[in-house]
Amino acid sequence: MTRPEASVRSVDFVWERVRDEAEQALRDEPLLGGLVHATILHHETLEQALAYRFAQKLASSEMSEQVLREIADAAISADPQIGQAARSDVVAVFERDPACHRFLQPMIFFKGFQAVQAYRIGRWLWTNGRKDLAYFIQMRVSEVLGADIHPGAQVGKGIMIDHAHSVVIGETAVVGDNVSMLHSVTLGGTGKDDDDRHPKIGDGVLIGAGAKVLGNISVGYCSRIAAGSVVLEDVPPMKTVAGVPARIVGEAGCSQPSIMMDQLLRASEPE
């Protein structure tokens, strides 16, 4: 007699932890009950929660919450990578931001995380030929969340944008996986050219607050860009650059700068 195979239930560890933390948040602060229920506990999946939060944050007299929810649901249903990338982003923020103590916080409070998730929906619209609507999403994200990410840009997963205020990512920019950046970072162009004109950021790069990376240049994997730097030339992998204009000032200092988040510049070791 053939023994039937045991059914295996797929476990979503990120979503289960978010829900558990939401229950604890209700016990700790009942006044947040309406927000926590509406944002997290009323939903069966992380994808549904993302779509709700997207619509609730960006709704205005120009476009209703219901229409935005339908757009987000369509995008997330058509592209499962949106939800998977969001899970990577939640973990990235938790692991790298010392102000983040729960998986719940990015979902409800952190505008950098929310801006990236909204960008992903705008990106789906852009790649499916709905560019005017994608521009509308970009505009609303900039107005509400303070980050201006062009839907034509290509942004990977495991992204942490701390604070997010005044972050600008241009149309032809490429941002790899597991990249961390702080507020007032610009990935911009250098003139009026409308071709491939924005930076290409490798995996595992750390970009400090106020840094400007300009032009169609490459920043190698696992490198560091010091706060306030202006980068106008290619950066090799696993180096630290600083200054205006930025110059190589040493090695990256560790194998995963974007995870370690160490922004201190140290004197070079003697040769």
Gist of the model:
With 271 residues, the chain is an alpha/beta fold. It contains 9 helices and 15 strands.
Would you give an account of this structure?
- This protein has 271 residues and is α/β, with parallel strands linked by helices.
- Helices cover 41% and strands 14% of the residues.
- It is built from nine helices and 15 strands.
- It has helices spanning 13-28, 33-41, 46-58, 65-78, 80-96, 104-108, 111-127, 131-145, 257-260, and strands spanning 147-149, 154-155, 160-161, 167-169, 174-175, 180-181, 186-188, 200-201, 206-207, 212-214, 218-219, 224-225, 230-231, 239-242, 247-251.
- It has a six-stranded mixed sheet with strand order 3-6-9-12-14-15.
- A hairpin with a 4-residue loop joins strand 14 and strand 15.
- Helix 1 packs antiparallel against helix 2 (33-41), helix 4 (65-78) packs across helix 5 (80-96) and helix 5 runs antiparallel to helix 7.
- The radius of gyration is 20 Å and the shape is globular.
- It starts with 12 loop residues before the first helix and ends in an 11-residue tail after the last helix.
Q: What is the H/E string?
A: HHHHHHHHEEEEEEEEEEEEEEEH
Low-confidence stretches: 1-8
Q: What's the total helix number? A: 9
- Biggest sheet: strand arrangement: 3-6-9-12-14-15
Structural class: alpha/beta
* Percent in helix: 40-55%
The Rg value, from CA coordinates, equals 20 Å
